[in-house]
Amino acid sequence: MDSIRQFENALAARVFPDGHGEAIAFWKGRVALYAILKALGIKPGDEVILPAYTCVVVPNAIIYCGAKPVYVDINPRTWTLDTGRIEAHITPHTRAIIAQNTFGLSADLDLVVDIAAKHHLHVVEDCAHGLGGTYKGRPNGSTGSASFVSFQWNKTITTGLGGMAFASSETTVRLLRDLQDQAASVPRRVQAQLRAQQVAHSLLSKPRMYWAIMQSYRSLSRLGLAVGSSSAIETESPSLPPDYFRQICSVQSKLGLRAIEDLSRQLTHRIAVARQYRQCLLSLGVEPCYEPDNASHSYLRFPLLVSDRRAFMSAAQRRGIEIGDWLNSPLHPVQSNLERWGYVPGSAPIAERTAARMVNLPTHSRTDGNVLRRNIAFLRENVGLIRERQDSGGS
Ligand SMILES: Cc1ncc(COP(=O)(O)O)c(C=O)c1O
């Protein structure tokens, strides 16, 4: 069996421990989503519901199928789909609902599934952030008609770039396999670049070097010298980029096979780091992010609402503290002309308020005892910039 099939089988066993589904790998998570939408028959004129707090590549995949993204505001505590608002957006053209894990937390899936069943819609779980988390004890990704994960640099396990679709219906699996066969293979030059970047990443990515590395990676990607996760086309307008629909390559699957062996340890580490951040915030009189009873958070990152993001990020950069600023827009990272993706500014006020104030702290394996102490000291020094209520309700 080749490494791609082995990688698919290893992940299918995580998402479907009872063996009732399959995994089909693609070049990126967004490509897996595009293939899922195609396999589910999404076509021009259809509408797909999604949270108004996501990455722009998600509505892109919908638009590339000729369909229309329909944005629903988010729950102010979980930052996932507000299930109470979904039905108001359903029309005779609606075909599917995308339920996203945000920073590692699942949406309230049973409510989404009930609404979908009532209106004969598909549920697609966007688990780009949520591999390893659970909802009511079920692994993220195992409930919907289909789901996908991402293996991009900053994800739970990484293959540099990469994605995997999951489905349990035989028909959907067969259609996804056909689409996988039809996708273009990754040119050797790009495979070599990806391998070199992976080596550089593992050697250089020390938390103290975060800001310098981010800047050089972005500059190299802009110059076409690095395989970046998003091309300029994807963030400028929703038009299908030329090399979008690609297969996964063996460089990615070999890395993935190695990474997956360490998944449980990685998750335990992330959750332990998140506990420490929570304790720190509580000791500072800040109520940390909400953890609902029905889901286990996989804490891809630790979300934090601040009152002045620019000031908080500048302070972090000065001190060499790794702080992420995603999701910093309803359609991250796009800051203007969101109408191009069918988003009407002002239509999802909770998402907009959240996007304006959200930062995130690292939980990955390089967040060791020393890094954690520095990050916690930084939180203490900057408590004046941290919002006391870690939910996006109110003003
Ligand atoms: C919520 C969400 N969905 C989907 C994706 C797409 O994943 P990928 O970068 O592997 O295409 C991302 C990217 O980070 C994301 O944040």
What count of helical segments does DSSP give?
Answer: 13
CATH top level class name of the largest domain: Alpha Beta
Rough outline: globular
Q: Tell me the Rg in angstroms.
A: 20 Å
Which architecture of the largest domain per CATH? 3-Layer(aba) Sandwich
Instruction: Tell me the number of strands.
Output: 14
Instruction: Report helical residue fraction.
Output: 25-40%
Strand order of the largest sheet: 1-10-9-6-5-2-4
The number of distinct structural domains comes to 2
**What is the N-to-C order of secondary-structure elements (H for helix, E for strand)?**
HEHEEHEEHEEEEEHHHHHHEEHEHEH
Annotated CATH topology of the largest domain = Aspartate Aminotransferase, domain 2
CATH superfamily of the largest domain: Type I PLP-dependent aspartate aminotransferase-like (Major domain)
- Separation, N- and C-terminal Cα atoms: 56 Å
Low-confidence stretches: none
Q: Cofactors and ligands present?
A: pyridoxal-5'-phosphate
β-sheet strand percentage: 5-15%
Overall mean pLDDT stands at 94
Q: Describe the sheet with the most strands.
A: 7 strands, mixed
Helix/strand/pairing class, anyone?
Answer: alpha/beta
